[in-house]
Amino acid sequence: MDYQNRAGSKFGGGGVASQSATNADRRERLRRLALETIDLDKDPYFFKNHVGSFECRLCLTVHQNDGSYLAHTQGRKHQTNLARRAAREQKEGRDREGVLPGMGQTVQVRKNLVKIGRPGYKITKVRHPLTRQSGLLFQLLYPQINPGNEPKVRFMSAYEQRVEDPDKSYQYLVLAAEPYETVAFKLQAREIDRSEDKFWTWFDADNKEFWVQVLFKTERDERYSNVPGLAPFGARR
């Protein structure tokens, strides 16, 4: 900093620096120090936007030149955010390895498996012999299913899926079994009869076949299912 040529000072002497001059000198010293230790090309948080300004992706700040950005990297805010990011990444790394924070217990972490394709399937229309309820019988083949595993089944509403535009007239029957891809069948949005002899699943471990039967409630059962004192159609004599 030039002290002797400041207005009002004697030749060879140094006047009192103003606050703005002191700040400018501090920023310049920090910039020179940062240039010696930081390579902006390798800084993951350094970004030059479309208007020529420089941004810090970690602190979400904007700087007019590289010197301002470098001075920012040496400041308290940036250093604090760096420490927080490092602590969070370290914690997430322990969680991925299966260590529960604060408990010292190790759990088995699910690995990403390579999917081998979709299972073969066959769909048959069925009707209950007594109640005349209509439904579907699904037969899926899993010849390479992981030992000890059985396929999982769940029903999904149209608003839970992200494959196509939601349509309240339909629902989905989802089946999953590793290492096969998860498959879904599009069904009418009718209430499923979950009675023991109406909705059932069965896995043939020898032939690696999975069976699912789905029967829909009748219109009368759907309409009066919540009416107290009214027995279902199959229970009436």
UniProtKB/TrEMBL annotation:
<feature type="compositionally biased region" description="Basic and acidic residues">
    <location>
        <begin position="86"/>
        <end position="98"/>
    </location>
</feature>
<feature type="domain" description="Matrin-type">
    <location>
        <begin position="54"/>
        <end position="84"/>
    </location>
</feature>
<dbReference type="GO" id="GO:0008270">
    <property type="term" value="F:zinc ion binding"/>
</dbReference>
<keyword id="KW-0507">mRNA processing</keyword>
<dbReference type="GO" id="GO:0003676">
    <property type="term" value="F:nucleic acid binding"/>
</dbReference>
<dbReference type="Pfam" id="PF16835">
    <property type="entry name" value="SF3A2"/>
</dbReference>
<dbReference type="InterPro" id="IPR052092">
    <property type="entry name" value="SF3A2"/>
</dbReference>
<dbReference type="InterPro" id="IPR013087">
    <property type="entry name" value="Znf_C2H2_type"/>
</dbReference>
<dbReference type="GO" id="GO:0071004">
    <property type="term" value="C:U2-type prespliceosome"/>
</dbReference>
<feature type="region of interest" description="Disordered">
    <location>
        <begin position="72"/>
        <end position="100"/>
    </location>
</feature>
<keyword id="KW-0747">Spliceosome</keyword>
<protein>
    <submittedName>
        <fullName>Splicing factor 3a subunit 2</fullName>
    </submittedName>
</protein>
<dbReference type="GO" id="GO:0071013">
    <property type="term" value="C:catalytic step 2 spliceosome"/>
</dbReference>
<keyword id="KW-0539">Nucleus</keyword>
<dbReference type="GO" id="GO:0000245">
    <property type="term" value="P:spliceosomal complex assembly"/>
</dbReference>
<dbReference type="GO" id="GO:0005686">
    <property type="term" value="C:U2 snRNP"/>
</dbReference>
<keyword id="KW-0863">Zinc-finger</keyword>
<dbReference type="InterPro" id="IPR003604">
    <property type="entry name" value="Matrin/U1-like-C_Znf_C2H2"/>
</dbReference>
<keyword id="KW-0508">mRNA splicing</keyword>
<dbReference type="InterPro" id="IPR000690">
    <property type="entry name" value="Matrin/U1-C_Znf_C2H2"/>
</dbReference>
<comment type="similarity">
    <text>Belongs to the SF3A2 family.</text>
</comment>
<dbReference type="InterPro" id="IPR031781">
    <property type="entry name" value="SF3A2_dom"/>
</dbReference>
<feature type="region of interest" description="Disordered">
    <location>
        <begin position="1"/>
        <end position="25"/>
    </location>
</feature>
<dbReference type="Pfam" id="PF12874">
    <property type="entry name" value="zf-met"/>
</dbReference>
<keyword id="KW-0862">Zinc</keyword>
<keyword id="KW-0479">Metal-binding</keyword>
